[in-house]
Design brief:
This protein has 477 residues and is an alpha+beta fold. The protein is built from 10 helices and 16 strands. Strands 7, 8, 9, 10, 11, 14, 15 and 16 form an 8-stranded mixed beta sheet that branches. The protein has a 6-stranded mixed beta sheet with strand order 5-4-6-1-13-12, sandwiched between helices. Strands 2-3 form a two-stranded antiparallel sheet. Residues 59-476 form the Serpin domain.
């Protein structure tokens, strides 16, 4: 019964980023800010920078893996980007200049070119509150306002049954929790505006720990924060005690848990199906596969030789976009990765329309850990990792001796930057119930979207266009 009872699906996504530096800004600013420093133009440029980083960083992470060995290359652009924004406030001039160049945001070197902190704060507030609406960008994909794709039945529009009627319990709203944490050696922190802005705009926690004398206690503190921020999904990010010379560890955690708008099947109806990591002419692997039927946003792009389908979550604030090359294999997906700029992805999503579809998609549980330091160095970001440079201006005044060894004007630099995600996509989550797709049998043949080869995954918050998760999937087994 391949497309039998369709059930509720809740998809939890959890992520932890242990990092220590970056920046983010926007691009050219031609419109005036309002009295609050908010600007649609600046916000659009900041979002575009995050999403373009997803493409360039995704290529670096893929290249570092040796191309043919990686199974998945998923990471969280919004988590990395939010940390970039936070540390931009702390970067000294030379480091800030390098960060802007790496992010292709040189236009923001000029003072007054755009109020980055306030626009970042507004975007993050819209993102974490998960409230429907156009937000500061004032735009949503056209499919958000589309009606049903079902035809009229006996002179009246088909009234699609509400999946919520089949749930044992009321559907809970999407949960989005973004947390930034800065853990500094005791005595280093000062009283600049950075501390206030970190809390007010970036939802950041700043805490002093004693790496020098109590590295074990510092590790416990950071892991406890990680555990709480991911609601227990990631219990620790530091498996060993930090080095006693550590001055700063920056951590970022994203927790996302959403419920599908259109349900996948109950778990008992999922079954193993072949998946082809390098095309159907190469060996396959068997993966547990889910099925669904209904109205889905869809577009076929001859220019990219690929198709895109969206799987919205409740309230249509966040959607999972799957971009699948035609006759997909590893080489075609790499080519698509290079071509899919931030602007191209936005254009592609803008062309989507609701279509009747039958879907086959692999059940996935991915846990990835990356050394972001190496990837970012290949992109040209080097000063933050240079111990001879005074990179960050959040240390105590050089006129006083600190607990960090009594050194005057201590230099902060990044020794490690680790990014870890845990991502699960399943049929059911905590809800139960079933619906049927009999309406599909009364209509024209639907789109058949069978995901059996390598694909790009982009989970996007549509009002802000920010990417929660992004990357290539070659083998979901």
């Amino acid at each position: 019964m391949p497309y039998g009872a369709i059930a509720s699906a809740k998809v939890p996504f959890r992520l932890l980023l242990l990092a220590a530096a970056l920046l983010l800004g926007g691009a050219e600013v031609n419109t005036q800010n309002n009295s609050n420093g908010l600007s649609k133009a600046v916000s659009e440029q900041l979002v575009a920078a995050i999403n373009e980083l997803a493409r360039t960083l995704g290529q670096q992470l893929g290249g570092a893996a040796g191309s043919n060995s990686s199974k998945t290359e998923l990471f969280s652009p919004v988590s990395i980007g939010s940390m970039m924004f936070l540390l931009l406030r702390a970067a000294n001039r030379d480091t800030r200049t390098e960060l802007l160049t790496v992010m292709q945001l040189d236009q923001f070197r000029k003072p007054g070119s755009g109020n980055i902190p306030k626009n970042v704060g507004r975007l993050l507030k819209e993102f974490t509150r998960d409230i429907g609406g156009k937000g500061i960008l004032g735009q949503l994909p056209s499919w958000h306002t589309s009606g049903s794709c079902y035809p009229s039945v006996n002179g009246s529009d088909y009234d699609e049954e509400n999946d919520d009627n089949f749930l044992d319990e009321p559907v809970q709203p999407n949960v989005v929790q973004l947390a930034n944490g800065l853990f500094l050696q005791s005595g280093l922190i000062n009283g600049t505006n950075f501390v206030r802005l970190a809390k007010e705009l970036y939802q950041a926690q700043i805490e002093q720990v004693n790496f020098r004398q109590q590295p074990g206690a510092a590790r416990v503190t950071i892991n406890r924060w990680v555990n709480e921020s991911t609601r227990g999904r990631i219990r620790e990010i530091l498996t060993d005690d930090p080095d006693t010379g550590t001055q700063l560890i920056v951590a970022n955690a994203l927790y996302f848990k959403g419920t599908w708008e259109t349900f996948f099947n109950e778990p008992q109806f999922s079954r193993p199906q072949p998946f082809f990591p390098d095309g159907e002419e190469q060996p396959s692997v068997m993966v547990p596969t889910m099925f669904a039927g209904g109205c889905f946003p869809y577009h076929s792009s001859p220019e990219l030789d690929a198709r895109i389908m969206a799987f919205p979550y409740r309230n249509r604030t966040t959607s999972m976009y799957i971009i699948l090359p035609n006759d997909s294999n590893r080489a075609k997906l790499r080519q698509l990765q290079r071509a899919l700029t931030s602007a191209e992805l936005d254009r592609l999503i803008g062309q989507m329309r609701l279509q009747k579809a039958i879907v086959q998609f692999p059940r996935m549980h991915v846990s990835n850990t990356y050394d972001l330091k190496q990837a970012l160095q290949r992109l040209g970001l080097r000063k933050l990792f240079d111990k001879s440079k005074n990179n960050l201006k959040i240390v105590s005044s050089p006129s006083s001796k600190s607990e960090a060894g009594g050194a005057r004007n201590p230099k902060l630099y990044i020794s490690e930057m680790v990014h870890k995600i845990d991502l699960e996509i399943n049929e059911r989550g905590t809800e139960g119930g079933a619906v049927t797709i009999t309406a599909m049998e009364r209509s024209l043949p639907p789109v058949s979207f069978r995901v059996r080869g390598p694909f790009l995954l982009a989970i996007r918050h549509d009002p802000t266009k920010m990417l929660l998760f992004y990357g290539a999937v070659f083998d979901p087994s």
